[in-house]
Amino acid sequence: MSAVKAEGLSGRPGRNMNLPPPWRKLLLTVHVATAVSVLGTDLVLLVLGISSVRGADPQTIYPAAHLVATWLLAPLAIVALGTGVLLGLLTQWGLLRYWWVTIKLALTAILTSVILFVLVPRLGVAADAATALDPRPFTDAERLPLMVAPAAGVTLLILIVVLAIYKPPWRLRSRPNRRHELG
Asked: Alpha-carbon distance 64 to 95, whole Å?
């Protein structure tokens, strides 16, 4: 059984961390399953958003979207981010060694933050407004973000998938280029 060399945040070789292949495969399986689930859940939100823009009843759409975002999307995004960080730390890819890993990490962290701190709270407000005792009609401008946000999320998630599959070999520089320094 071979040991997999871990890389620290700097992308430089760190101490050897043994992550046996069965554990690496399990971690990778959980990561891929949750990442695919995030994409699928975001597609569900996109369908709800399109339905909303096309005039579906906000009393149905917004509570459903809030439930999906709160109970599915947010936890899945957290697990996908966490398992991705662990894979970066416990495998040869590192977190900041290759551009594709760093871009995936940044996009996943941004998307997770937007889900937790923007999308879920705003959907909660919209769901409360839609189910109030005397709900007011939602304008087209109020309905549009429920379609645009998941569309942007799906687009970025597909970019993340492309990066994971193609793994461009570009490396981040581990030290500054000394040719451009004055001296």
From this structure: 36
Angle, helices 145-166/99-114, rounded to nearest 10 degrees: 160
User: Model confidence over 122-175: pLDDT tens digits?
Assistant: 999 999 999 999 988 899 999 999 999 999 999 999 999 999 999 888 888 664
Longest dimension (CA), the chain: 73
Strand-pair partners of 7: 13
pLDDT at 180: 52
CA distance 38 to 31: 11
Which SS3 state, helix, strand or coil, does residue 78 take?
helix
Q: Return the bridge partners of 16, or none.
A: 5
Indicate the residue type of 153: G
Mean pLDDT lowest among 32-46, 58-72, 118-132, 167-181: 167-181
Residue 171, SS3 per DSSP = strand
- Separation of alpha carbons 154 and 46, rounded Å: 8
Q: CA–CA separation, 22 vs 28, rounded Å?
A: 10
